[in-house]
Sequence to fold (412 residues):
Amino acid sequence: MKHARPTVLYAAAVRDAAGVDARPGAVLIQDGHVVAAGEPDSLPAELVEQAEVIDRPNDLLLPAMVNAHTHLDLTPVGPQPYDPAAGFVGWVKMVRSKESEAKKQWQTALPQAIEASQASGVQAAGDIGHPYEDGPIKRAARFLGSSYRELFGLGPPFDEQARLNIADASWPFAIQPHSPYSAGPDLYRLAATSGRPVSTHLAEHQEELDFVAKLSGPMFDYVRSLGRWDDAFAEHYGKGLTPVQWMRPHLEAAAPDGGWLVAHCNYVSDEDITILADTNTSVAYCPIASEYFEHENHRYRDMLEAGVNVCLGTDSIVGTDPDDPQPLGLLSAMRRLYERDQTNPATLLAMATRHGAKALRLKSSIATLQPGAPANFACIPIDSGSAIDPLEQALTGQAPIEAISLWHPPKQ
Fold:
């Protein structure tokens, strides 16, 4: 097999969450994949001599990131204000009022959302969407990750189509029962035992807690107003359980296949964290979205300490800062956690890369600079002469990411 000419990418520093840490640093690429990374003198000399050179003397070079939880289908809606008086149910009504117009724009909006994600240094995503085909668009755009299809229905007959989708072996998507207040235990059971990647929204807001534990509150009233409630479902709720406790049997059922990816977990107890750790569950924390909904004191650090695989997501663009130049990227979330919580920079890098890849069941080399990794990179300007750690500089700066991709997927 004839190999393309290699490329060597020099930078002020190179870093990943799998052991590469060099200043200055370099990455050697051939055939769209990393061959080696580290100090420039450590790279194979015979390949470096043949290589084309890309020089980034004032940048920190990182592997491109993994957005573990996003709703690209809502990108046409754009950032919207949140009304605390209307609560989460009011927000849902607002978004639903805009969905039909967003769907009309989808054929052009999806490629644009993917391009914006990639330009923000994201190479893979756990994208939550509706059941219209977007897989070919994503493959054409060389975008990695999983397309989760949201499934709804608290029981027959409301979940009939969802059941058929799960049972259809040719159905090409990963599975996302939407949430315990919109998808019943039968859908969760079928999803957990399907062998597919599975995800859900869990413990996101107080309305969800009231629905599950008490069968009351604004979300319960809203579901009934939609005509999607039958009193026969009541036996599955109102037992005083938290959403994580309610879902425990389904978390346990999927654990041997790789576990669930659950989004948010804004409201969790000590017992909940133990359950998440014991069931191999990954948590996609979306800090910008959590703050948008006025949630405080997320326990992601307690989860990490307990062994939970916590990764980062953006949620939808609806809850982002209108002035953020890269709302579909993860750098803003990393910077927010570093500023607010002084979270270890290495931990934040792992959450944005390796942890997300694990949550999406991607190859272990994805989002690293290890041999065989896709040649997708995020470059962030730093002061190459400063004594401050390059990653810390990137997290305290304001410059956006510049993406570099030399990767090309294998031919099908």
Notes: Residues 277 and 307 are 6 Å apart (CA to CA).
